[in-house]
Design brief:
The structure holds two protein chains of two kinds.
Chain A: H1 13-17, H2 20-32, E1 33-34, E2 39-40, H3 48-58, H4 60-65, H5 70-73, H6 76-89, H7 94-112, H8 119-144, H9 148-164, H10 173-185, H11 188-194, H12 200-222, E3 230-231, H13 232-236, H14 246-258, H15 268-274, E4 287-288, H16 290-301, H17 304-308
Antiparallel strand pairs in A: 1-2, 3-4
Chain B: H1 6-29, H2 48-66, E1 69-76, H3 82-90, E2 107-111, E3 119-121, H4 126-140, H5 144-152, H6 154-164, E4 172-174, H7 175-195, E5 213-216, E6 230-235, H8 244-257, E7 260-266, H9 276-289, E8 293-298, H10 310-321, E9 331-333, H11 336-352, H12 360-370, H13 374-377, H14 381-395, H15 398-443, H16 446-522, H17 536-546, E10 565-568, H18 571-629, H19 651-672, E11 693-695, E12 700-703, H20 704-762, H21 767-802
Parallel strand pairs in B: 1-6, 1-7, 2-5, 7-8, 8-9
Antiparallel strand pairs in B: 2-6, 3-4, 3-5, 10-12, 11-12
Helix pairs in contact in B: 1-2, 1-15, 1-21, 2-15, 3-11, 4-6, 8-9, 11-12, 11-14, 12-14, 15-20, 15-21, 16-17, 16-18, 16-20, 18-19, 18-20, 19-20
The chains are: A mainly alpha, B alpha/beta.
Chain lengths: 309, 816
């Protein structure tokens, strides 16, 4: 049974369905390491979901039950060990590695001014920075290779197969679309599209494909014809009645955590699909055709400017 | 299925209006909007002047969406109980129900929460007071006999005193009694104008804004939230009430625009033609108002055992009387009197806890509910409440009231929605273009921009050329249609000649046969036949059939083959003869009318296909050229909607009206000349018949020349009216449509060109400022593009919903 505190392990169905969760987890984990306070921030109040993943991914769930003082294992040294391990095993995307790398650079800089860290710790960090740098370099080359296109295509196919097969079905149609977008965003397609060396026309073509497939699947899911506008609140944002499976509660929570950096103003469609709000954001229409939602979601996740730049 | 409801669309329209407004305001704040260009043709899509107007329009549309204006037009005769029905809807006596028509001018009765005592507000009182001055002069020079007659009329006497003393009318009247007095004097004033041959200023009251308004709280609506809209009843003058002719066009227009039309018919007169004119009015507007017409069949409480029951009445009215333009479910047998008494009693009880003692309606209510023993019950509030509720139920009023108001609300919401959606659609496109042009022109060099600007100028000039040739085509088609009408007219006149001629022959034969019979009965052997010179057209015609058989005129029997007068001894025979002539002429008239119809219709069709065909072709080419010229801007210039190059009502109904108007002037003119129209019966006018048919002592005369003349006049009137509507109605409509179309198209291109010109000026700004403007414009272009899509979706949904019979989820709460 699932409850608010049950840990979410990498092997859980949820993580299998939304592979982007572990990518984001690694990034959030890195960003949570606070060297000045020798601590990792696990902000339980704000994102209960991250805490559950933290427990499940770092194996702390069991220890908490024996009431071991968390602050000891939450220390920077231990955290860096975990980060190294997590990055090696879980972070697959250039997006995650780049962001972890950014964080490690900052941490290294901060550590120089702090005397209480051991040489070991400093060396560990340097080693990690080195490995990340190498991975990024390798990846950049891979991404600009022509056969990476295949990976991007595969990312699209797998994502939409999941959607079509009903793996996101506990979410509202718009929620499903957003879940798919995050899978692509953290997946090979995202890496491909963010690489400005890749031809713009190919990137545009990919995004158009994403829009078209989302449009079709949205319409199918909501049982609305392609050209027929439907109500946002009662159709596109209407979640099926919550199922008893753990997915029924966890997946919406996961979605909300994935969208924790999204603002109502810059990404109104994602905001309304991922968070429960009383009123729709003013930029979201009350009625829309499937295509409108697919386009808006796609462009909120892959802003047009990144293509035009 | 997922049914969109109108309230969601309304809210969406409001959201879009707010979004568009904030986008435009932001553009203003960020300095993207410049001062208007000096040359009108170089103006940008938005400048500081035009953007203010656009914002005003957006606010106006938003207000209209929040405050729906529901107009429920009530048509019917005084006798059918129109006033009582209105009082029943209001729940108070606002319109006096006395024994004569009172509605001289159309009057609005507006639900105004909190106003318990009705008050009439008539802002435009000035023309009436000017009339008072004019009338005081007219009276001085009036025929003394007529004046004496007027003096004998009590009401008129009061008015004459008012005129003499120059007591001007007030623009506000409080209370039912004062309202009644005012409306009565208004009515008397119109009558007086007719008597004194003075002109009543009907023209001044030809718009809704000029009409008198009675404000009062409708008791049934008092708990309805303001957001549900404001209900206004439009009390239209009955078909035969004074002034109606003058305001006919306006009224028809109002009926078409009304959120719902409620006709009051008389149950006891359903099978007579008492309400015929009302029904005809309904038929006329049924083309546009079909789905929002309702009929109250009043006085259903007078049904006796043998009378039609409810289903039969619904069926008869819907199918037989209204020829299926009205659904059976829109017909409601009611008793307006019971409805009025019940709702007034309930209203009174709610306000004061009891009924007043000395008002006569209370007695009516008591007798209606409790019979002869009413006095015993009337002071018991509980009994009265129960009785009023029961009576209200019996009156049959609650269902139609709920349905009609519900429908009115829906239609008003639809109107507001459509208006907002179409404006949004246009403005959002403009806004999108504006930002795109801003972005594009900053990305381009000044030289490139200048090239674009010059090329667009070429396109604008090409549009003007096509406009000129389209107008020529329209003129050509007008001329062609006129010629066709002329030909058709000549043909019909020829047929008239033939028909009349043959009737003349027939009549004369009958006349001569009669004479022969008389000869034989007299046994006269001395009848001599003289040869008389036969003159004129009929004479020749007659001579040719009778040959020399009767060449001499018998002075005693007085048979004159050349005389246009046909004399018949037998009344029945004469009547029958006349009837047959009448029916032939009616057929000819109908043919004339339908010939005109088809001439005009084919003219319009010609023009439409001409326009749709190669004109549009040429315009598409220009559109392509514009697109090429603006290629890097991603701007799409669409052709304006061609919907407005159409005739707003069917030609046949236009024709019918024009003919009625024309024959009215013909008969009027004839009346002044003392020549009574013989064509009138053809148009079903009651008073004027075939006056040429004179009954003298022992024989009946039919003046064939008179008939011929009248018929020709009538036929001429038909063709003249065809020409009239062609010249005054249809051609201007088409011409305006063409003009609007090209104007809108040109303006759009001019504005984009203006945007580019403004863009050239922006190049002189410093680098940082330019980058800033580019960033803001790009962001806003994306937002505008999204909004543009939403506007199209809204517009389409509104149109789809309009054609679907889908009840909205919101219902007005009517206390019933």
């Amino acid at each position: 049974m699932s409850n608010d505190l049950a840990p979410i392990t990498p092997n859980s169905t949820l993580c299998q369905t939304l592979s982007c969760l572990q990518e984001k987890f690694v990034v959030d984990f890195a960003n949570g390491i606070d060297v000045t306070r020798d601590h990792i921030r696990v902000q339980r109040q704000r994102t209960g979901f991250f805490a559950r993943m933290y427990d499940g991914f770092t194996g702390k769930g069991a220890r908490r039950q024996t009431e071991i003082n968390a602050s000891l294992v939450d220390g920077v040294e231990a955290s860096l060990k975990w980060l190294t391990e997590l990055t090696e095993s879980m972070a697959q995307s250039n997006l995650a590695i780049t962001q972890v790398n950014d964080r490690v650079s900052i941490l290294s800089g901060s550590m120089v001014e702090l005397s209480h860290y051991s040489i070991d710790t400093r060396e560990q960090l340097q080693e990690m920075a080195y490995r990340l740098d190498k991975r990024m370099h390798d990846m950049a080359q891979e991404i600009s290779r022509i056969d990476f296109i295949q990976k991007a295509k595969l990312n699209i196919d797998i994502t939409f197969s999941k959607w079509e097969a009903g793996h996101f079905s506990v979410l509202s149609p718009a929620g499903r679309c957003y879940a798919a977008m995050e899978e692509l965003h953290w997946g090979s397609l995202g890496d491909y599209c963010r690489c400005l060396d890749n031809p713009a026309h190919q990137r545009r073509e990919f995004l158009q494909l994403v829009i078209d497939r989302s449009t079709k699947q949205l319409a199918v899911d909501a049982a609305v014809e392609l050209q027929t506008p439907a109500e946002m609140a009662t159709v596109w944002l209407a979640a099926p009645s919550i199922s008893r499976s753990s997915n029924g509660i966890d997946m919406p929570q996961a979605l909300s955590w994935l969208a924790d950096q999204m603002t109502i103003d810059s990404t109104p469609f994602i905001y309304s699909a991922a968070h429960i709000t009383k009123n729709l954001p003013s930029k979201v229409p009350l009625i829309a055709q499937a295509r409108r939602i697919a386009e808006a979601m796609t462009h909120e996740v892959f802003p047009l400017e990144t293509l035009d730049a | 299925m997922h049914q969109l409801n109108i309230d969601t669309l309304r809210m969406e329209a409001k959201r879009q209006l707010a979004q568009l407004k904030s986008l435009l305001e932001k553009a203003q704040q960020k300095g993207l909007v410049d001062e208007p260009a000096a040359d009108d043709h170089n103006r940008a899509t938005f400048d500081t002047q035009s953007i203010a107007k656009v914002l005003e329009v957006l606010d106006g549309e938003s207000y209209k969406l929040d405050h729906l204006d529901m107009v429920l037009a009530v048509v019917g005769t005084m006798k059918a109980g129109k006033s009582t029905s209105i009082n029943a809807i209001v729940g108070a006596e606002v319109l006096p129900n006395r024994n004569r028509p009172m509605t001289t001018l159309p009057t609005l009765i507006r639900h105004t929460p909190g106003v318990l005592q009705p008050r009439l507000i008539f802002e435009k009182i000035q023309p009436l007071n000017e009339l008072l001055v004019a009338l005081s002069q007219a009276i001085k020079s009036a025929n003394p006999e007529a004046l004496t007659e007027l003096q004998n009329d009590k009401d008129m006497k009061e008015l004459l005193i008012q005129i003499r003393q120059q007591n001007f009318f007030e623009s506000q009247h409080e209370g039912a009694e004062n309202i009644f007095r005012f409306l009565k004097s208004l009515n008397d004033l119109v009558r007086l104008c007719f008597t004194l041959k003075a002109t009543f200023p009907f023209d001044a009251y030809a718009t809704v804004e000029a009409m008198p308004v009675i404000e009062v709280e409708f008791s049934h609506l008092k708990d309805t939230p303001v957001t549900q809209g404001r209900l206004t009843l439009l009390d239209t003058p009955g078909p035969n009430e004074a002034g109606q002719q003058h305001l006919r066009h306006m009224l028809k227009d109002q009926l078409k625009k009304a959120s719902a039309v409620l006709a009051v018919l008389d149950y006891t007169q359903l099978k007579s033609d008492a309400d015929e004119q009302v029904r005809e009015n309904l038929m006329e507007i049924s083309y546009t108002a079909k789905d929002r017409m309702y009929a109250l069949v009043n006085k259903f409480d007078q049904k006796d055992r043998n009378g039609d029951d409810e289903p039969a009445v619904k069926k008869y009215v819907a199918q037989t009387l209204m020829k299926n333009v009205m659904a059976e479910s829109s017909v409601f047998p009611v008793s307006s009197k019971q409805g009025y008494l019940a709702s007034r009693a309930r209203n009174e009880l709610e306000r004061n806890g009891k009924l007043p003692n000395n008002e006569c309606w209370v007695e009516d209510f008591g007798k209606e509910r409790f019979g002869g023993m009413w006095v015993d019950f009337i002071n018991d509030p509980q009994m009265v409440k129960a009785g009023a509720d029961k009576l209200w139920q019996e009156s049959g009023f609650s269902i139609p009231l709920e349905q009609v108001i519900f429908e009115a609300h829906r239609n008003a919401a639809m109107e507001a929605l459509r208006s907002a959606a179409s404006k949004l659609d246009n403005f959002a496109k403009d806004t999108g273009n504006f930002f795109k042009a801003n972005v594009g022109s900053l990305k381009k060099s000044v030289a490139e921009l200048q090239k674009n600007i010059d090329r667009l100028q070429q396109d604008i000039e090409n549009i003007a050329k096509i406009e000129a040739s389209t107008e020529d085509a329209l003129k050509g088609i007008l001329k062609g249609t006129q010629r066709k009408i002329e030909t058709a007219a000549a043909e019909v006149q020829k047929e008239v000649t033939e028909k009349i001629e043959s009737y003349f022959k027939e009549g004369k034969t009958a006349e001569s046969d009669n004479l022969q019979k008389k000869d034989q009965t007299k046994g006269s052997s001395n009848s001599k036949e003289k040869t008389t010179p036969i003159n004129g057209f009929f004479g020749v015609a007659f001579a040719s059939i009778l040959g020399n058989k009767r060449e001499e005129k018998d002075p005693t029997l007085d048979f004159d083959p050349s005389s246009p007068i046909i004399k018949l001894d037998d009344r029945a025979e004469a009547q029958d003869f006349i009837k047959r002539i009448e029916s032939s002429i009616k057929t000819l008239m109908d043919k004339a009318e339908s010939d005109c119809n088809s001439c005009i219709q084919s003219g319009i069709d010609n023009f439409s296909s001409e326009f749709e065909g190669h004109r549009i072709d040429a315009l598409e080419k220009i559109k392509e050229s514009i697109k090429r010229n603006l290629d890097d801007f991603d701007i799409m210039v669409n052709l304006p909607n061609t919907e407005n190059i159409k005739i707003d009502s069917p030609v046949s109904s236009l024709m019918k009206n024009a003919i009625m108007e024309k024959t009215r002037t013909v008969t009027k003119h004839r009346r002044q000349d003392g020549l009574w129209g013989t064509i009138c019966r053809v148009f079903d006018t009651d008073h004027w018949g075939w006056e040429s048919y004179q009954d003298s002592e022992n024989y009946f005369e039919i003046d064939i020349i008179q008939i011929d003349k009248s018929t020709r006049l009538a036929i001429d009137a038909v063709f003249e009216s065809a020409n009239d509507i062609l010249n005054k109605d249809i051609y201007p409509q088409l011409q305006n449509g063409v003009e609007d179309f090209f104007c809108a198209f040109r303006k759009r291109v001019e504005n984009i060109r203006g945007d580019l010109i403004a863009g050239v000026q922006k190049h002189s700004l410093d680098h940082a400022r330019k980058a800033d403007i580019l960033a803001v414009s790009s962001e806003m272009a994306i937002e505008a593009a999204a909004l543009e899509k939403d506007c199209i979706t809204l517009n389409d949904s509104a149109e789809t919903l309009r054609y679907k019979e889908s009840p909205s989820s919101t219902r007005i709460e009517v206390q019933v």
